[in-house]
Amino acid sequence: MDLLEQLNALPGQLEERLAQTATEADLEAVRVDFLGRKGKLAELMAQMRNLTPEQRPAFGQAANAVKNSLIELFEARLAQQEQEHCHRILEIFGAITK
C-alpha cells in the first residue's frame, strides 16, 4: 500500500476504533494514536520527505484534508459520548427524585 492509500485509509480506521471506545480515557488514547505527535498521521507525514518534489504538494493537501476529517470524526464521537453521559446523569437524577 502506498503512502496516499495509507493516508486515505486513516478515517475508516479511526471510525472503527471510535466505535469501540467506551470511556473518555479510551477516546483520548485513540486521539493520541491517530493525531498525536507520534501518531499514525504524523508517521505518514514524516515519510513525505521520501516523495518526489512533484508529489509533495498533492500529498500535503491530501494530508490536510484527512487531518480535518479525523478531527471531525473525533469531535463527533466526543460530542456523542458527552451526550450519552448527560443522559445517564439525567436518568440517575430522575430515578433519585422519584
What is this structure, in a nutshell?
The protein is mostly helical and 98 residues long. It has four helices and no strands. The mean pLDDT is 92.
Walkthrough of the structure:
This protein is mainly alpha-helical. The protein is elongated. It has helices at residues 3-19, 24-35, 40-46, 56-97. Helix 1 (3-19) runs parallel beside helix 4. It has four helices and no strands. It starts with a helix and ends with a helix. The mean pLDDT is 92.
Q: Give the overall silhouette.
A: elongated
CA-CA gap between termini? 58 Å
Helix content bin: over 70%
Beta strands, count: 0
Can you tell me the residue ranges where pLDDT is under 50 for at least 5 consecutive residues?
none
N-to-C series of helices and strands: HHHH
Q: Into which percentage range does the β-strand content fall?
A: under 5%
Describe the sheet with the most strands.
Answer: none
Q: Please give the oligomerization state of what you see.
A: single chain
The chain-level mean pLDDT equals 92
Q: Which structural category fits the helices and strands?
A: mainly alpha
Tally of individual helices:
4
- Rg calc: 18 Å
Keywords:
single chain, about 100 residues, mainly alpha
List the SSEs and their pairings:
Elements: H1 3-19, H2 24-35, H3 40-46, H4 56-97
Helix pairs in contact: 1-4, 2-4
